[in-house]
Predict the 3D structure of the following.
Amino acid sequence: MNINEIQDEIIEEFSMFEDWMERYDYIIELGKSLPELDEKFKTDENLIKGCQSKVWLYAELKGDKIIFKADGDAILTKGIVALLLQVFSEQTPKDILNSELYFIDKIGLKEHLSPTRANGLVSMVKQFKLYALAFQTKLN
């Protein structure tokens, strides 16, 4: 699936919920289902700067696709990064760099986060794109 198809799927999933408490519960469940990141990847260099809680993002290039792994020390943050993993993992650097993330606004995520968590979300997206840029440079 491409990035836009995945975003459309997420929008559809979130449309099933009647209110934001149900959506928060769903995001928390996503966070709980996120596989734990190996301790060897929980390093300062994999720590996303600008997040209130600790979030680690690790990426590796397999073929022409990036495989992302992430973890966090706060359950809501883990859920948010799990959503981003769904969208970006196993995509090409070029597709990630050219993507417009519209699902965040469509599901109302940013407007229902505290300002510090919203800033953290922006930092997470930025880090995914920085990895994509680094791998794109390697591929060229």
Observations:
- The helical segments are 3-15, 20-33, 75-88, 93-98, 103-106, 115-139.
- Residues 50 and 119 are 7 Å apart (CA to CA).
- Residues 115-139 form the longest helix (25 residues).
